[in-house]
Amino acid sequence: MIRRAAVYFLAISCGMLLACSAASPAVCAPLRLTASAEAALADAAASLGVAPQRPCAFRDAFEVAAVVTDTLPGTPPSSRVTFIVTRREERAFTFSATRAVVLFSAIPQGTHRLRIAAGRTVAEGFAGPSGTGMDSAYLRWRTDDITYELAATLHSWLTEADVRAIATAMLQP
Hints:
By secondary structure, the protein is α+β, with helices and mostly antiparallel strands. It has one domain (27-171). 24% of the residues lie in helices and 40% in strands. The protein contains 3 helices and 10 strands, in the order αββαββββββββα. It has helices at residues 2-16, 35-48, 160-171, and strands at residues 29-30, 32-33, 56-57, 62-72, 78-87, 90-98, 112-118, 121-129, 135-143, 146-153. The strands form 2 sheets. It has an 8-stranded mixed β-sheet. Strands 1-3 form a two-stranded antiparallel sheet. A hairpin with a 2-residue loop joins β7 and β8. The relative contact order is 0.15.
């Protein structure tokens, strides 16, 4: 009887945990890049001066559809590399890296603050209504002289909890 209760408790607990789900792997796996994204990655890394951390996810339905670079103003200007991540050709999130120090500012009205810590690295941001009829989640952190930003449009298949889990995994050394 005790053994059956323990198994039942474990089954209920794992049903609520992302890592226990049979539908998703227990690790945040680096995402597959389309051929055009793969081709753009080498040039993007050269503009940043270092190979950027690649985004990951707990489900294999996501892929990096594009890798783009732009320049942030400042003295000196800084390159930014952005990975555009999709799920079945629908935009899921962007993940960017830059050497620029991008300070955190006030959170938009109607959203709530997000804060995730892993070791000595802290990601800060917000989640909630974006003004477009969709909810969004945004996190920013800095490690090894690189500022990272994760910006997601929330869906039934990409929740705030998913974004938190992805960011937590990416904060790990």
